[in-house]
Design a protein that fits this description.
This is Purine and uridine phosphorylase. It contains eight helices and 18 strands. The protein is of the alpha/beta class and about 350 residues long. Helix 1 packs across helix 7 and helix 4 crosses helix 7. It binds zinc ion.
Length: about 350
């Protein structure tokens, strides 16, 4: 039985479907009734050399993420830092003219410095303030090398754990279901419609219409590093999305990170399941949750094990300081490092 003080990584899942994906990347899952504190139960397991405790938010939103992180930190005192892993909305493209990167559904966005020294920005408070500079844990992930791991292989291993009925739950939906609508074309159907029947196909850009930068082989998402916009409001307008992107240099929209970033060393990993417009649907959610979890697993493999006993009496600042010289990506301007076609580049050296 793993004791509460032995967990060193806190993994926050905003949604139950994010939790289903992380279960599949655990190398070992502990009996659920053994991972608890004051009758609050968590998912616990081992990923490589790390003891990981996983919490799911009761509701979506910034404050819920903050509450969960606080509870987890109180219950598992040696959590050195958090990973917040789940699905989110992405901008379709970013970067300066001539060096534009395309984000397609299923790609992964990782919070890292991009213009603002790595802020997660909370933008629904009327003013953009740097809500939670990424702390030492993330800043220390600055690139000074590169390392590749294979997200494709992790996805394959995840599927092997599924029973027959769920076998295709985490399949790559493929390019034909990746529809990027023109900015001004609003969704015509209900929330559940996947646009195929309700929305005008002439108003869609498929990946093939978006140039080579939008091409992906099956199970080979690209990884993007950049600022994340965090808000309590769901982003459902392409026009508003473009405005916020332009004004604040963000590549991803979500509803949790700012709540956690304020208080704890935290890395945000988001699988992109829609384009933050009115055509949101659930078609990509499982796969995006899987690519995010697969990336995060690779990330943990790069991080030295945290010694739970030695950090027992240190402050949280010092926890962060024990994670040194690690970086996301190898491009300090925060532009997508490149299309890796499945080989995720972490940008720091294995110890
Ligand atoms: Zn639509």
């Amino acid at each position: 039985m793993v004791k509460n003080h032995q967990f060193t990584i806190g993994w926050i899942c905003p949604l139950p479907l994010d939790r289903e994906a992380v279960r599949l990347v655990l190398d070992e899952e502990y009996p659920q009734d053994e991972v608890q504190y004051q009758n609050a139960f968590y998912l616990g397991g081992r990923i490589g050399k790390h003891q990981v405790v996983i919490g799911v938010q009761r509701k979506i939103g910034l404050s819920q993420a903050a509450i969960l992180a606080e509870k987890m930190r109180a219950s598992f005192p040696n959590i050195g830092y958090f990973l917040l892993v789940g699905i989110a909305s992405g901008v379709p493209r970013y970067g300066p003219a001539g060096a534009v990167s395309e984000i397609v559904l299923g790609d992964v966005v990782v919070s890292s410095p991009r213009g603002y020294h790595g802020r997660v920005l909370q933008y629904d408070k009327g003013a953009w303030e740097g809500q939670g500079l990424l702390r030492a844990a993330v800043n220390n992930f600055r690139a000074d090398g590169s390392f590749k791991t294979n997200i494709t292989e992790v996805l394959k291993q995840m599927r092997l754990k599924l029973d027959k009925e769920r076998q295709h739950q985490y399949d790559d939906p493929g390019p034909s279901r990746d529809r990027l609508f023109k900015d001004t074309y609003e969704h015509r159907g209900t929330e559940l419609d996947e646009c195929r029947a309700c929305c005008d196909a002439d108003c869609v850009d498929l990946r093939s219409d978006r140039g080579g930068g939008a091409t992906r082989l099956v199970d080979k998402p690209s990884i993007h590093f950049g600022n994340i916009a965090s808000s309590n409001q769901m982003q459902i307008s392409a026009v508003e999305r473009n405005r916020v992107q332009k004004e604040h240099n963000v590549i991803c929209f979500e509803m949790e990170a700012a709540g956690v970033m304020d208080e704890y060393p935290c890395v945000i990993v988001r699988g992109i399941c829609d384009y933050a417009d009115s055509h949101k649907n659930k078609g990509w959610q499982n796969y995006a949750a899987a690519t995010a979890a697969a990336y995060a697993k690779g990330l943990l493999a790069m991080i030295p094990a945290i010694d739970a006993t030695s950090i027992e009496e240190q402050s949280s600042t010092q926890h962060a300081a024990t994670i040194t010289n690690m970086t996301f990506g190898n491009n300090r301007d925060g532009i997508q490092t490149q299309n890796f076609h499945g080989n995720v580049q972490f940008g720091f050296e294995r110890r």
